[in-house]
């Protein structure tokens, strides 16, 4: 390791201090760790009001009546709005399908759906007024799973669909369906010496960002509105907000405020439209901040999934075929479900060579909570299942599971199930070799001369064991994730770069609409500008809609796409600066006429290092500014019948080894180590790269052993909407996280980089499950694994949606706004 904590031997920096390849510190880092950073929830405005949402207490019901009279009469209340008070005929929004009502009308389709909004002079007044709104519901039959969604005569979640997917699905309660067929899976199955099948259940995970949804809407004198908001995609928000308000987009001015994490949960709208409506209605600034309970209802979650797989292989360890069916529960509204289906289908075989596949992936409409984007985006659920299958096939053949994966590992040139060639390095076998070669953590670390250190044992300080009944297990997994938006989406970003002299030195200003959600994009963007323009002083302007779209901070795309836009804009600035220099100084030195001039260290230099001029002298009083869009290579939609097509722009790969210790008597698990090897193409900021890998790894650990939103299958109500009952890994649950970073450049990407943030979230989960299986000998076909799954003590309280032997800890339902009361069992 280098002195800064990054792995030694990674990319070296450029000639200008703070350029790419260096582990420069984050400009927001100190402020965040000292508690001085201003998040969206910290915003304040003179004379502002507070907004509050009234949410449905049932999951599917006709709205018979809404009585707002008592709420309006409450002292301090300035406005109460329902669907009937919306200012235009545009009353729905959505990322792709506009099926989500701004406020419920006619019926509610999920527990916690917004029905009315209130603005008052104090947050508690707003909450009390919202509670006074009387809503009469007539409950309707529920759609909660595939059986109830597609049965003859099934209740339709959306009765009158007209979206572009509706003509390609076998039932109106299916949001989107994507088959992928290549080769002849049936014929290939006949050649298999071993065929293994499996059914898997992946639980609903929450993004669980620590900064709750929050925003401040300020009405403008021109009849418009300024919105300061924590989001992932400013221009997508703008495109959905402006039509509902009846305003042109230039009158809805959006500025990114401090974002406390996202992971996909801020890609959809939350209170953006509500805050703007109340601000325009009252003529006063309106602030809205969800509490933690509301946050669980205020954003989408990761799709729970049911997955059926069949793998076949020959005796020499070669895969013959893969058949699979993936059913994702999209909940009440479409959100990003169509794209998640495309990812789940196209990545469902994993990073392996397989010529014959028969794949079906689909997402359901149901009355469960809406699900959409979350880190890994459909590939996470698939990876959990196909890696469990790879272990089963290896066992059936009597092969080492890592060796079996190595035999079938894809490489550059391999065809994906969609027929797309992988046209950049795909070092799957090398990643497996590296992660297996890492030193193993010592056995029985809890033992010391003074007795057992219970902190190192399953159960920790609860002192449940001193080592008796504790068994170690080791598991491996590897995954593949696409980078960037896919399936023909016009994925671009815009950057405005300005170079000028100020205070006797050259200064660069970079302006994009990229949402900094904690990933460190602002750090890397400054590094790119320093590298390309040779200037140390770089200012990153706040993200807003006064510059063109930067796309979403998702799909591991921002360093690739917005970084690419900044690089391109800087190149154009550099060309103009050199032309300016040639006009002013070209007659003084013949080197000005050459093509190999560079900007480095605030000077114009030749490729041999000779200084021709200071940038300040070249610029004088002139500023050079460029605003440019940049796109990656185009992709194609998948064929709706065969799934063939070049749907993705880039792939990323990561492998994990998990080491766990399990108290087999109590079903408690302690993850001792989660080692990762990942190819990053080129590490622009090595320390940030390692941080992303470790963060994704821990998020995968969470869904493996503790994280799950529990939904009652009888009422479709969320049972654990709090951080008391929805369990997250803490520092005490986080194991050692050694990282081995491989840099094999992708020639199609800026600097050869590869998106980093999502791939480690895929393989960490199945690696942990494989290790627990290794320790216990149990099949374990669901996430998260709970103690009762390991001890066989589920009994008669088994949740109806669980596989045999599984159980859930169910908290009695409560209306949104009331605290949850009971606590689920912790898995670590």
Describe what is shown at a glance:
By secondary structure, this protein is α+β, with helices and mostly antiparallel strands. Helix content is 24%, strand content 23%. A 7-stranded mixed sheet has the order 3-7-1-14-11-12-13, sandwiched between helices. A 6-stranded mixed sheet has the order 9-17-16-15-10-31, sandwiched between helices. The chain has a 4-stranded mixed sheet with strand order 20-28-29-30, sandwiched between helices.
How does this structure look, described?
Residues 1-25, 780-828 are annotated as: Disordered. InterPro entries: Ald_Oxase/Xan_DH_a/b (IPR000674), Ald_Oxase/Xan_DH_a/b_sf (IPR036856), Ald_Oxase/xanthine_DH-like (IPR016208), AldOxase/xan_DH_MoCoBD1 (IPR008274), AldOxase/xan_DH_MoCoBD2 (IPR046867), AldOxase/xan_DH_Mopterin-bd_sf (IPR037165). Residues 34-141 form the Aldehyde oxidase/xanthine dehydrogenase a/b hammerhead domain. With 828 residues, the chain is of the alpha+beta class. Helices cover 24% and strands 23% of the residues. The protein contains 18 helices and 31 strands. The protein has a 7-stranded mixed sheet, sandwiched between helices. Strand 12, helix 6 (234-245) and strand 13 (252-256) form a beta-alpha-beta unit. The relative contact order is 0.13.
């Amino acid at each position: 390791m280098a002195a800064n904590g990054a792995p030694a031997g990674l990319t070296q920096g450029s000639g200008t201090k703070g350029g790419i390849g260096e582990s420069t510190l984050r400009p927001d880092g100190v402020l965040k760790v000292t508690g001085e950073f201003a998040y969206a929830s910290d915003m304040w405005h003179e004379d502002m009001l507070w907004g509050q949402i009234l949410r449905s207490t049932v999951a599917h019901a006709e709205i018979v009546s809404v009585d707002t009279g008592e709420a309006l009469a409450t002292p301090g209340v300035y406005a109460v709005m329902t669907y009937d008070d919306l200012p235009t005929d545009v009353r729905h929004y959505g990322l792709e399908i506009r099926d989500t009502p701004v406020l419920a009308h006619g019926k509610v389709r999920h527990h916690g759906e917004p029905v009315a909004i209130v603005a008052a002079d104090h947050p508690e007044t707003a909450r009390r007024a919202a509670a006074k709104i009387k809503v009469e519901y007539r409950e309707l039959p529920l759609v909660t799973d595939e059986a109830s969604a597609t049965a003859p005569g099934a209740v339709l979640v959306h009765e009158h669909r007209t979206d572009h997917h509706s003509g390609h699905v076998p039932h109106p309660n299916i949001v989107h369906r994507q088959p992928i067929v290549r080769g002849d899976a049936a014929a290939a199955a006949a050649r298999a010496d071993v065929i293994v099948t499996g059914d898997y259940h992946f639980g609903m995970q929450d993004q669980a960002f620590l900064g709750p949804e929050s925003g401040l809407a300020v009405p403008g004198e021109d009849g418009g509105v300024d919105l300061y908001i924590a989001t992932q995609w400013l221009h997508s928000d703008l495109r959905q907000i402006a039509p509902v308000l009846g305003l042109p987009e230039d009158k809805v001015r959006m500025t990114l405020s401090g974002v406390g994490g996202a992971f996909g949960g801020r890609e959809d709208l939350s209170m953006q439209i509500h805050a703007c409506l109340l601000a325009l209605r009252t003529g006063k600034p309106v602030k809205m901040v969800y509490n933690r309970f509301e946050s669980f209802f205020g954003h989408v979650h990761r799709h729970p999934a049911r997955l059926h797989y069949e793998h076949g292989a020959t005796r020499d360890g070669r895969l013959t075929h893969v058949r699979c069916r993936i059913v994702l529960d999209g909940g009440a509204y479409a959100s990003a479900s169509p794209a998640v289906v495309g990812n789940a289908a196209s990545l469902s075989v994993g990073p392996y060579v397989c010529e014959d596949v028969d794949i079906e992936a689909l997402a359901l409409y149901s009355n469960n909570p809406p699900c959409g984007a979350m880190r890994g985006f459909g590939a996470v659920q698939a990876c959990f299942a196909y890696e469990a299958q790879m272990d089963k096939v290896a066992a059936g053949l009597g092969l080492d599971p890592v060796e079996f994966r190595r035999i079938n590992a894809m490489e550059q040139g391999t065809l994906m199930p969609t027929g797309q060639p992988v046209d950049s390095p795909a070092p799957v076998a090398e990643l497996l070799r590296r992660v297996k070669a890492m030193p193993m953590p010592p056995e029985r670390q809890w033992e010391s001369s003074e007795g057992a250190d219970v902190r190192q044992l399953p159960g920790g300080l609860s002192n449940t064991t001193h080592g008796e009944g504790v068994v170690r297990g080791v598991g491996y997994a590897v995954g593949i994730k696409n980078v960037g938006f896919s399936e023909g989406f016009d994925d671009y970003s815009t950057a405005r770069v300005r170079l000028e002299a100020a205070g006797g030195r050259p200064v660069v200003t970079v302006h994009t609409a990229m949402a900094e959600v904690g990933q460190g994009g602002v750090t890397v963007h400054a590094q790119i500008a320093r590298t390309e323009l040779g200037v140390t002083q770089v200012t990153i302007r706040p993200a807003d809609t006064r510059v063109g779209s930067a796309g979403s901070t998702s799909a591991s795309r921002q360093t690739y796409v917005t970084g690419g836009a900044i690089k391109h804009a800087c190149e154009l600035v550099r060309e103009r600066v050199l032309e300016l220099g040639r006009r002013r100084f070209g007659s003084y030195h013949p080197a000005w006429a050459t093509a190999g001039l560079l900007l480095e260290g605030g000077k114009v230099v030749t490729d041999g290092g000779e200084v021709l001029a200071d940038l300040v002298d070249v610029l004088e009083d002139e500023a050079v500014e460029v605003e440019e869009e940049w796109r990656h290579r185009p992709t194609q939609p998948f064929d709706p019948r065969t799934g063939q097509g070049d749907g993705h722009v880039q792939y990323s790969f990561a492998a994990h080894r998990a080491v766990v210790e399990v108290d087999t008597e109590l079903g408690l698990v302690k993850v001792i180590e989660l080692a990762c090897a990942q190819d990053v193409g080129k590490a622009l900021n090595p320390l940030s790269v390692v941080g992303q890998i470790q963060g994704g790894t821990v998020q995968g650990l969470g869904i493996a052993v503790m994280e799950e939103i529990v939904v009652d299958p009888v009422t479709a109500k969320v049972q654990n909407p709090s951080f008391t009952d929805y369990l997250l890994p803490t520092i005490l649950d986080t194991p050692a996280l050694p990282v081995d970073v491989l840099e094999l450049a992708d020639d199609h990407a800026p600097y050869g980089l590869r998106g980093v943030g999502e791939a480690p979230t895929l393989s960490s989960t199945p690696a942990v499950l494989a290790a627990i299986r290794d320790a216990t000998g149990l099949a374990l076909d669901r996430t998260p694994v709970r103690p009762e799954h390991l001890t066989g003590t589920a009994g008669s309280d088994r949740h109806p949606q669980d596989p045999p032997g599984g159980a859930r800890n169910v908290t009695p339902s409560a209306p949104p706004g009331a605290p949850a009361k009971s606590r689920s069992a912790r898995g670590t």
